[in-house]
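Bumping my old thread because nobody answered last time. Still need a sequence for this structure:
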């Protein structure tokens, strides 16, 4: 195990970061839980956290919550229990903003879980595990508006960049931030990494040594639990080729790029997906330097800097420009859509369990039509697909997929945004926000819509104050707002944008 990772530096691990023994309990939790509420409104919904014993020993655990301000706005249940080897337990975090009478602002706290091996009494690997809690209280009447970014620095102009939100602390305390990386300008692929921090704005981190080289059509993936930060991997490089190199932007003590080994790595590729399923980064699909569409991939263990094979038995058909999300309920990666080797879009998919290296098929009954240029988000229980282009043209419809039952259900069409492709979509915790992209005839859009899953309704995102119409932009949910940045506008490439607060 690589000792410069937070899992070794900040956690009391057994054997000083040696590989786990057979009788060792291992505790795994996400790094961050975020929740948002409007002042005077109802309490936010409870959030469930999966306590995952990745070891071979029964895990005896206890859980407590604390807040920086001392107010009792969060609680956890159960506060103690036992998890079977390779089993899971569900912890429920409840938020009480009304009783605590919280004023607008950002409130922080922690969920701390400690565990021991029931057989030996030794501390579990990863114990104590601390989950950062962020609760944003928004002033009543201030939502549904576009805001300027904090600070005055603007990222360099580009299109097709990646934007991912994670923990990027510069010390022992995690600090939430969003990483903008890569893409291309008129001269070709760029690296040009920037971090955005709430209240601070954009920070150019291109001087940080060891970062990945210029690339586009790559992936950037947030990682969690013992680790914080993001992994940039693969993509198309400056000479028109593709790469199987990458680096991990380690989020703590201090901020640093750590190279990803190429030993046993998947072959170089672009237009693939990379999904975090603790404790591995799952890379799959894409195209190689010759344009061959791939059905292969690999599992990258950050803690050991090691690539593991990924089975192709039962895997979906080879494809590129597809979508992937992590199913946090069933602990699997969901693959959907994309372009097949024939160049035609598909509505097929698969479910991958990295712990057992096993694929299962995904139903296509009631699935969206085969399409490209769609958007996909994970709601916490379902995968939602919307928009894109099928054989008949642009679409403004979609469906949600529930992996627990392997079933699709169509989204309501009343009030949905205009049909489009190449747009972005983010999940706020309660709603999906769709924005930008291209309409019929390739016209760039500055419009969008918000889909409330609980109500099953669409409302328009205001055009007033929105960034200029664009496609090829990047978007991410950042604490209590959606960041929209970069892309191609009618005036050319831009590095600017704005933030939308629902």
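Sorry it took so long. Here it is:
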């Amino acid at each position: 195990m690589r000792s410069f990772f937070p899992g070794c530096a900040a956690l009391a691990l057994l054997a000083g970061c040696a590989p786990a023994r057979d009788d060792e309990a291992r505790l795994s939790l996400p790094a961050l839980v975020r929740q948002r509420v409007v002042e005077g409104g109802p309490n936010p919904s409870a959030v469930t956290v999966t306590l995952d014993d990745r070891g071979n020993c029964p895990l005896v655990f206890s859980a407590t919550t604390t807040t920086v301000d001392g107010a009792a706005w969060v609680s956890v249940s159960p506060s103690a229990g036992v998890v079977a080897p390779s089993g899971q337990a569900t912890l429920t975090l409840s938020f009480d903003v009304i009783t605590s009478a919280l004023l607008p602002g950002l409130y922080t706290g922690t969920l701390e879980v400690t565990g021991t091996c029931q057989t030996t009494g030794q501390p579990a690997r990863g114990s104590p595990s601390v989950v950062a809690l962020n609760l944003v209280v928004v002033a009543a009447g201030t939502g549904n508006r576009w805001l300027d970014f904090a600070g005055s620095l603007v990222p360099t102009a580009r299109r097709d960049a990646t934007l991912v939100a994670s923990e990027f602390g510069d010390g022992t305390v995690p600090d939430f931030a969003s990483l903008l990386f890569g893409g291309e300008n008129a001269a070709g692929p760029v690296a040009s990494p920037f971090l955005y921090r709430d209240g601070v704005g954009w920070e150019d981190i291109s001087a940080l040594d060891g970062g990945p080289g210029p690339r586009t059509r790559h992936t950037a993936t947030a990682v969690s639990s013992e680790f914080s930060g993001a992994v940039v991997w693969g993509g198309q490089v400056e000479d028109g080729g593709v790469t199987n190199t990458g680096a991990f932007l380690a989020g703590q003590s201090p901020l640093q790029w750590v190279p990803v080994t190429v030993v046993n790595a998947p072959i170089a590729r672009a237009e693939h997906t990379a999904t975090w399923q603790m404790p591995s980064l799952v890379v799959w699909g894409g195209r190689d330097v010759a344009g061959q569409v791939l059905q292969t991939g690999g599992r990258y263990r950050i803690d050991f800097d090691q690539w593991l094979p990924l089975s192709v038995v039962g895997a979906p058909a080879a494809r590129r420009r597809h979508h992937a999300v992590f199913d946090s309920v069933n602990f699997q990666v969901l693959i959907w859509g994309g372009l097949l080797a024939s160049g035609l879009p598909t509505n097929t998919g698969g479910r991958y369990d990295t712990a057992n290296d096993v694929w299962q098929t995904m139903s296509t009954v009631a699935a969206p039509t085969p399409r490209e240029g769609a958007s996909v988000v994970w709601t916490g229980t379902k995968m939602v697909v919307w928009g894109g282009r099928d054989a008949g043209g642009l679409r403004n419809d979609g469906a949600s997929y529930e992996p627990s039952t392997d079933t699709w259900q169509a989204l309501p069409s009343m009030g949905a945004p205009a049909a489009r492709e190449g747009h972005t979509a983010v999940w706020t915790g309660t709603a999906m926000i769709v924005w930008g992209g291209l309409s019929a005839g390739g016209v760039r859009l500055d419009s969008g819509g918000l889909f409330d899953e609980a109500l099953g309704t669409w409302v328009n995102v205001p055009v007033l104050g929105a960034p200029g119409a664009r496609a090829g932009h990047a978007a991410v949910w950042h604490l209590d707002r959606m960041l929209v940045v970069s892309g191609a506008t009618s005036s050319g490439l831009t590095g600017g944008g704005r933030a939308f607060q629902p």
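The radius of gyration is 22 Å. Let me know if any region looks off to you.
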